[in-house]
């Protein structure tokens, strides 16, 4: 029974992702999601409460998946050149996932109309990831593997350099998951540029 319940919740989330990406948060109706996922409106309400609860569930899923890439970076013993490149490629996969695109469209495109969802996502998704990146840079700077004066600023710079343009293009529909290989190639180049200003002066660039 529990497994069937989890499968039902997964179908609701999958259907919600599709409907949100097609119609936007404002235009999405719970009846459309139920029709696509199967099941009943009563089951959806019991699981998520309402459309806002469903959006929160999608955001939590995306935050968890993206967070794994940062956690792997924190646990990595590889040189920064390799560790940051691996992390960037993993981040690209999550940023271009349908769930993350749906979340970003809610936060960016419809954020002014739904500030509670926007602010929750920033507080529980973006800001914690920047803090974890800052911890990584602090560790690597202390070990002498990176030359960074402001770890928090470096975290914001890295996040923006690797993902900023990607997020914008995915929101407006110019790229999606089918473009991951090319986006990862661009991310590797962005990591290289980032490292030009952070590797110790007496250390050869990658």
TrEMBL record:
Name of this chain's protein: HTH tetR-type domain-containing protein
Checking Gene3D superfamilies in the record gives: Homeodomain-like, Tetracycline Repressor, domain 2
Q: Which domain of life is it from?
A: Bacteria
Q: Which UniProt keywords apply?
A: DNA-binding
Upper taxonomic classification of the species?
A: Bacteria, Pseudomonadati, Pseudomonadota, Gammaproteobacteria, Lysobacterales
DNA-binding region at which residues?
Answer: 29-48
Q: Which organism is it from?
A: Stenotrophomonas pictorum JCM 9942
Q: InterPro entries this protein is in?
A: Homeodomain-like_sf (IPR009057), HTH-type_TetR-like_transc_reg (IPR050109), HTH_TetR (IPR001647), Tet_transcr_reg_TetR-rel_C_sf (IPR036271), TetR_C_Proteobacteria (IPR039536)
| Domain HTH tetR-type, chain residue ranges per copy | 6-66
Molecular function (Gene Ontology), one example: transcription cis-regulatory region binding
């Amino acid at each position: 029974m529990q497994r069937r319940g989890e499968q039902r919740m997964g179908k609701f989330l999958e259907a919600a992702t599709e409907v949100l990406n097609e119609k936007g948060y404002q235009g999405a109706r719970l009846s459309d999601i139920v029709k696509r996922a199967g099941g009943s409106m009563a089951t959806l309400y019991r699981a998520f409460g309402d459309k806002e609860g469903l959006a929160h569930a999608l955001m939590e899923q995306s935050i968890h998946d993206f967070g794994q890439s940062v956690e792997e970076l924190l646990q990595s013993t590889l040189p920064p050149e390799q560790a940051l490149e691996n992390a960037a490629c993993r981040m690209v996969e999550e940023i271009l996932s349908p769930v993350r695109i749906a979340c970003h469209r809610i936060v960016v495109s419809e954020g002014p109309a739904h500030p509670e969802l926007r602010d929750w996502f920033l507080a529980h998704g973006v800001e914690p990831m920047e803090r974890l990146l800052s911890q990584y840079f602090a560790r690597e700077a202390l070990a002498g593997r990176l030359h960074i004066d402001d770890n928090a600023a470096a975290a914001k710079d890295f996040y923006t350099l690797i993902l900023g343009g990607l997020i914008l293009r995915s929101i407006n529909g110019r790229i999606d998951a089918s473009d991951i290989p090319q986006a990862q190639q661009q991310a590797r180049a962005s990591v290289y540029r980032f490292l030009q200003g952070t590797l110790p002066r007496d250390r050869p660039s990658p």
